[in-house]
Amino acid sequence: MANGDQQKRVVLRVPVATTAAIYLKGEFYKRFKLADLSTDGLSVLTGSSDVLPDKFEIRFRLRRFSRTIRIVLEVKNRISVSEGVRLGCVFSEISDSDKKRVNKYIYNFVDISFPEQAVNFAAFLCVIDASFRLLLYSINSYYSATDLGRSSFVPALSNFTGITLVFYAFLACLAFIFSSPSIISKGRLNFIFSLFLLGYAFLFLIIKNFICWKEGLWNLNYLYTNMFLVSQLFLVFYLGFAIVIGTFFLKKITLTLDIIKQELAALKLRLVQLKFLRKKQN
Amino acid sequence: MVGLFLSFGLYFIHFADVKLRVDLGRLLDQDIIYLKDGSLLRGWVVREGRDEILVETERGNFTLPRARCKSIEKDVFLRFVRKAI
Fold first, then answer.
1. Per-residue DSSP letters for A40-108?
2. Nearest chain B Cα to A204, which residue?
3. ipTM of this predicted complex?
4. Residue B13 pLDDT
5. Of A110, A129, A149, which residue is a domain's last?
6. Closest residue to B83, CB basis, from A128, A137, A215
7. Do the domain assignments include residue B23?
């Protein structure tokens, strides 16, 4: 058996919340908790008094109703932890279908593109909406300030509306920047920040929709005004959906980013070690 | 994106053809006259008298007896824009 310090898996390890049945020479031995899983190995948490051989069979399900995965493992290291002993193992014998299942599980676990894209796209739509509103505001201001508005019966827009619009546009732009995948990968706080910004945009649009409904703007029945109102309503629903999805996946995003961060740190450490060893050899 | 829309706004104010500005102004200014027979007229109320209303439409100007009018909604699009944004 190799020493744990010398042999380290530098592949993405994801946590697994399941127990696995250990089989010794084809006979059921005991059930133990799985600690994590990667594409070429896993780690099992055993009791301090349990002694397992260097090679054994393990059977487990990744989901409640999924097929049982059968793998023959080879123990690479044994580390004492507070819960007992953590066995770091590599796959020795695994069928292609089980390998595919493990890979798919890991891929799905670390795949956070769905909430990322949902929030980013919502922010993008908000940017377009804000831009369109600002354009209308500037046209309206021009109209109010010139002779064209001489027969106007409606009071001009207040500065407060303008400030709110500029603020909305600014926050929408910030949300779009902070929800981009490259920024999110730097930390979960960026994602939470973009969710907060979208929360403001959501509130703003809810109020606008309410005003439109209360003022009876839907009764106008013009194609363009209805298009604007429908798109505004759609934006509220989509924004709500994106915020819910983002909040729902927050834990997963946090976990995935932490895993990636840890693995990156491990990789950097390994690189430093390798460089040091090469220097030593020279 | 915001910059693009703002640029268009600035272009509209400083460089756009006067006709475009006037047309847009007229569109914002458009009034709707609801008639008692259930139909409606889209145009611009030029002058309102006690018995008659002078209306300008795409097809020309004409005088409408006030007795035929149910109500007049003025500056429809301007009202819409100001409330919606």
1. SEEEEEE-TT----SEEEEEE-SSTTSPPEEEEEEEEEEEEETTEEEEEEEEEEE-HHHHHHHHHHHHH
2. B85
3. 0.73
4. 67
5. A110
6. A215
7. yes
